[in-house]
Amino acid sequence: MRTATNNPFTPGFGDAAVWVPRTRQVAAVRAMVSRARTGARQAPRLIEQERGFGKTSLLAAVEDLASDWEDDAVVIRVTAVEGEPFMTALAHRLSQGLRQVEGTVGAALVQVSSWLGRVREIRLAGVLEVDVDETAEMPASLALGRALQELGAAARADGDRPVVLLIDEAQAIDAPSRRAVFTALQEVINTLDATGRVLPFAVVLAGLPGTRAAFKRHRVTFGERCRDLPLESLEDEAIRDTLLRFDTFNTEGVTFAGDGIEEMIEATGGHPHVFQLVGEGAWNHREDGQHITAEDVRAGVAQSQRELAMIAQARLNGLTESQLGWLRAMAGIAEGERTLTSICRAFRGRDSATASDCGSIADALLTKGVIRRADDGSGVVFALRSIEDHLRA
Ligand SMILES: Nc1ncnc2c1ncn2[C@@H]1O[C@H](COP(=O)(O)OP(=O)(O)OP(=O)(O)O)[C@@H](O)[C@H]1O
Ligand SMILES: [Mg+2]
């Protein structure tokens, strides 16, 4: 029986039970982790994406998976919180990480006694005794750098273990921490250990769009140089595969009917949060159905109208005037005739325009998940139906 209690969909949680694999991203991080072990120098990777695209879920998945790939990886996940000193949070997590490195630094302790740009005292018992003059202050970047180096070296000494550092909500890292953290990371990524290899770090950050631009604005050069890890809409094929084995994600043996799957793909437009929201509503639509049908999915959409409108609005916030104008031009063209050329012509108001005249606008809207390429390759579609409704309203 389908009830609200055994509903496997979890809108709003960064740890999805009904999980659509992120094959490309996971493979990229996995490769980083193996390279970390071999001691290859690698820049941190940055996921920059809008709310609800699944950044937190991806980091959580990496955290779970890392122990399958490299059963001994030391994983440290930390979330920046607006208004809180990030350095302090990171220092706590690092000391937890140190405790994972058994034998070597079982009794390790990173003590951050005060914040305001300074970490006063660091003691890694048994491994590192920083000679701290109680009255002197150690710059935060240096203290953090030392702690990271000790962690890296200890992990390597403890059977060549890689260290995976995952930082979420990177846009919320406070200004003093931002500089200290990247200075420390840069130093660590350029430090060779006793075996002549780079310390075994794989660093992944996730933040809202604009995170990199903020690093640049604040002259945090090493942050700006993070390599991009693109996180886009969920792929139709991946959604289909997941829903085909939906019975493995719920306790009631409920499956998705074929038309239910296709309706989910269409209704959710690859948007992870909408996927969870509509799925939840579809499950709740009936108690007795063993198969979730297209009708259930449509009911799920109807039930989520308000939230879907908010998601559409959020997707449109922050778009430029030209991007919005281009989208309105698109909405004015009949479905099925929305090619990049026809939209650009309508937007520019001249028949001689070609798709490449609007190339950067279309690219930005594809990346932001506002539009998607049509399955038959003929043109583009709105990623969410509610976006089109919103533009017409
Ligand atoms: N790969 C996925 N498969 C299925 N559901 C997912 C997937 N990724 C994320 N979700 C779901 O989408 C919703 C949003 O995910 P998540 O919180 O990870 O996004 P986010 O990008 O971190 O958003 P925010 O910027 O608001 O923190 C959650 O309900 C989550 O369960
Ligand atoms: Mg998140």
Q: What's this model, at a glance?
A:
With 393 residues, the chain is of the alpha/beta class.
Question: What can you see in these coordinates?
Answer:
- The structure is a single chain.
- By secondary structure, the chain is an alpha/beta fold.
- It has 3 domains: 23-228, P-loop containing nucleotide triphosphate hydrolases (Rossmann fold); 236-312, Helicase, Ruva Protein, domain 3; 316-392, Winged helix-like DNA-binding domain superfamily/Winged helix DNA-binding domain (Arc Repressor Mutant, subunit A, Orthogonal Bundle).
- It contains 16 helices and 13 strands.
- The protein has helices at 23-38, 55-69, 86-100, 140-157, 175-189, 211-217, 221-224, 236-244, 258-268, 272-285, 294-303, 305-316, 321-331, 340-348, 359-367, 385-392, and strands at 45-48, 74-79, 118-119, 123-124, 128-129, 138-139, 163-168, 201-207, 227-228, 255-256, 291-292, 371-373, 380-382.
- The strands form 5 sheets. It has a 5-stranded parallel β-sheet with strand order 2-7-8-1-9, with helices on both faces. A two-stranded antiparallel sheet has the order 3-6. Strands 4-5 form a two-stranded antiparallel ribbon.
- Helix 13 crosses helix 14 (340-348).
- Mean pLDDT is 86; it is low at 104-135.
- Residues 14, 55-56, 168 line the site of magnesium ion.
